[in-house]
Amino acid sequence: MELKRVVITGVGTVNPLGNSVQEYWENLKKGVSGAGPITHFDASKHVTQFACEVKNFDPLLYIDKKEVRKHDLFTQYAFASTAQAIEDSGLDLEKVDGDRVGVIWGAGIGGLQTFHEEVRAYSEERPRFSPFFIPKMIANIAGGLVSIKYGFRGPNYTTVSACASSTHAIIDAFNMIRMGKADMIVTGGSEAGVNEAGVAGFNSMRALSTRNDDPKTASRPFDKDRDGFVIAEGSAAFILEEYEHAVSRGAKIYAEVAGGGMSGDAFHMTAPDPDGRGASLVMKWALEDAGIKPEDVDYINVHGTSTPLGDIAEPKAIIKTFGDHAYKLSISSTKSMTGHLLGAAGAVEGLASILAIQNSIVPPTINHFTDDPEIDSKLDFTFNKAKEREIKFAISNTFGFGGHNATLVFKKF
Fold first, then answer.
1. Active site residue 52
2. pLDDT, mean of residues 285-313
3. Range of the structural domain that residue 344 is part of
4. Which of 86, 215, 279, 373 has a 20 to 30 A CA-CA distance from 132?
5. Torsional class of 360: left (φ above 0), alpha (ψ -120 to 50), beta (otherwise)
6. Catalytically annotated residue among 21, 35, 52, 163
C-alpha cells in the first residue's frame, strides 16, 4: 500500500525548563539547568535531594477545580501539554471528525505518587483505599482522559516501555496515520516521578546523581565525572496529522515525521549492551524506514542520561551506525538541562529535535568539564554552548530499562 505522509501541526509542553514551548526553547538555547533542591516533599532523608521539577505549574489553567483531585500529576501534565498543542494546531474542534482522531500516549510508570500516597494512608490512617486509587494510578489513564475530554474516538492506547515509552507512542501514531487508520493523533508522553518512591527507588539502584552540593551541574552526559542521572518530570504533546489533511485546513507545519525504528538489546534488565548493538540496530532501522542514508542526518538528540555505562555505549553505537559521518554530526543531550523525564523523555527530546530543525540551532550538552577517555572525543557533542547549523534531518534516541530502544527521524519541512 502507498503510505501517507505525516506532519507535526501542533506542539505543547510542561517541563523543568518551562511551561510553554517558547519558554522551553529559550532556555534550551541558553543552556539553562532545570535542576534544584526538591520541593515536592521533604527529601532530607534521601541520598539524592535534588531533581528537575516543573516550576509554577497551575493545573487550574487546564482542569476544573473540582476535577483536579481526581487526577495524578502525570495526568495533569498531559492535559496541559495537550491543551497547548491543540490550541497551537489551530484545530476547530467543532469541525473535526472525532472518529478519525486518536490519542496514543506514553508513560513509563503512571501514577506513582498516587500509589505511594494510597498505600501509606491505608497502612497509617484508614482501613480502605480511595475509589480514585486505580483510575488515578493506571498508566493508560492520561491518554484515555484526553480522548474523553475532546471526543477523540480513533485509536486510543498507551505505550509503556520505560524511558522509551513516549517515543514508541509517537512511532505508533506515525504508523497509524501513514497507514490511513486516522487523520490526526494526539501523541507524546507524561511522567511525574519526582516523589519519595521515585527518588528512593532509583537511589537504591544507584542510578541517580548524588551531587547535592551542586545540583545544576549534576547532569553531566559524557563527562568523566558523571555519577548518574537527575530525575525529572513533565510532558510534551504533538498533533500528528496526515499531510493532505493538514494542507486542506491551512495548518502550519513544524516538521515531517520521516521514520521510526524499534529494537531490543536482549542483554540485561537495566544495563545497556556495552557494544551498543541494540542502539545501533534501532538507528539503522529508523534510517531505513525513513528511506535516507546515514550521511543525510545532521543532528542526533541522544539518550545521553549521564550514567556511567549508557554514555559509553551510545557513542559506540553512533560510530557503528554512521561510520566516518559520525564525526560530521552534531550531537547533544538535552537531559543535561531537563534531567531525565523517564517515560516522557522521548516526547520532550523529540520536541527539542523539531525546534532545532525549525530554528537551525543545535542545543548544547551543558556541564562538560572533563573528557572521558572511554568516549571518542572527536565526536561533536556540542558541549556547553549552542551552535547554529542547518538541520535537514534529525534523529532522537530513547532507550529504556528492559533493553527497549526507539528512534525517531524528523525531516525539515
1. no
2. 97
3. 264-411
4. 86
5. left
6. 163
